[in-house]
Design goal:
By secondary structure, the protein is α+β, with helices and mostly antiparallel strands. The protein contains three helices and four strands; from the N terminus they run αβαβαββ. The longest helix is centred in the middle third of the chain and has 16 residues.
């Protein structure tokens, strides 16, 4: 699901940024949680890795997982969110 099989025998310290993000999500899913929190999961990723991460998040949601996502990218929020809250100084502004 996370396209990490070929890298399984390599140390995680050698993984690219996108691979590390996918590994983070894979580890988060151990135990089959129904709710996960993702803090800016695509920051610093190249466009291809970013879209791959979006697809993984969409699949999680379609499998019934509730995802709380923080992002500074409005396009990302628009693509992935059912509901959006805008925070200002730690309070919901909109």
């Amino acid at each position: 699901r996370f396209d990490l099989v070929d890298a399984a025998k390599k140390p995680a310290s050698t993984y690219s940024g996108g691979m590390k993000r996918r590994l983070d999500i894979a580890m988060t899913l151990v135990g089959d949680p129904r709710i996960i929190f993702l803090d800016e999961p695509t920051t610093g990723l190249d466009p291809r890795s970013r879209h791959t991460m979006w697809q993984i998040i969409r699949e999680l949601v379609s499998d019934g997982v509730t995802v709380f996502l923080t992002t500074q990218y409005l396009e990302e929020a628009d693509q992935l969110a059912d509901r959006i809250a805008v925070l200002n100084d730690g309070k919901i502004a909109a």
